[in-house]
Amino acid sequence: MNTALSIDVIKEWGLQKLSPEKQEEMVERIGRIMYQAILVRSLDILSEKEQDEFDALLDKDDTTPQTVLSFLESKIPTFQELLKEEKNNLKRDLLIPLE
Questions:
Q1: pLDDT (tens digit, 9 = 90+) per residue, 33-66?
Q2: DSSP code string of 33-60
Q3: Which of 19, 27, 55, 98 is the residue whose CA sits 20 to 30 A from 61?
Q4: Residue 99 maps to a domain
Q5: How many domains does one find in the chain?
């Protein structure tokens, strides 16, 4: 996860009181969970052709999570909304009050 996004997650999720090592661990965990949730939701939205393109992208050795997210953002007009929903769903599931 990039540094700016990590800082946002630390602030938004109230992780400032944790040690830097624990903050990094929690940011990674949150990032992985959100990434997986976004992938699952995206598969329901993509057309069959787009799913084939997505599968081909995932089969490449040099594909990164950022590449995957960029692809999904280019194919799903409401991608930013989807991200926000999944973040809020995760916070709700972890019993963290939404702001």
A1: 989 999 999 999 999 999 999 999 999 999 999 9
A2: HHHHHHHHHHHHHS-HHHHHHHHHHHHS
A3: 27
A4: no
A5: 1
Q: What is d(CA 1, CA 72) in angstroms, rounded to the nearest whole number? A: 17
Q: What is the pLDDT of residue 98?
A: 54
pTM of the model: 0.80
Intra-chain end-to-end CA distance of the chain, in Å: 23
Helices and strands, counts by H and E, the chain: 5, 0
Alpha-carbon gap, residue 32 to 26, rounded angstroms: 10
What is the model's pLDDT at position 90? Answer: 86
Is 98 within the bounds of a domain? no
Q: Residue 17 is encoded by which pair of tokens? A: 């009181």
Which residue is listed with tokens 């995206």? 42
Cα 73 from Cα 75, distance rounded (Å): 5
Q: Which residue has the higher pLDDT, 48 or 90?
A: 48
